[in-house]
Amino acid sequence: MLLIGTHLAWNYVVLILLYSINSSFAPPTQHVLEKSEVAPSKLNMKLKDAYEALVSFFRPVTCRHKDEQTLIPCRVGEGLNTTECLENKCCPSKTSHELKCYMPFKDNMQLTFRLLVLVAGGFLILGCLPFCFCAFLQRSQCVNPLRRANKKVEQIVWKKRAHGEDTYGLLLD
What we know:
By secondary structure, the chain is mostly helical. The protein is built from 5 helices and 4 strands.
């Protein structure tokens, strides 16, 4: 029963982590290969995607700015429309008097939340592992000597069973 609860809790921790990894940026458009280009290997692309997800997990950014924050123009250029701005991982402006495309801000609150969930999940796992191992090892006959049958006791039980069967057999006759 303890293992089912731990498994369920672990599933929720993983779901929360995966939800918090999700970026607020639009997915990049797919790059079309030209005749002279060579397609990169799938393993290389998977490793690159995993590395980018890991980096974005520990460096969350947001497009919400507060009044005291200064807007930094996007490094690609200022005259970008909303789609180009999102493709370059920049933030489009909703008002006309500000920059049309600016760099996202570091999101310390999201980073704190992610680290808190990660540490809490680690403590939950480390806290539950001893209980799981103890429960497993307590039921194991090879590790727990109290679970093993004593040979003398086992012989006495076999003798009593044999004697009991003899007595029961005599009663039926």
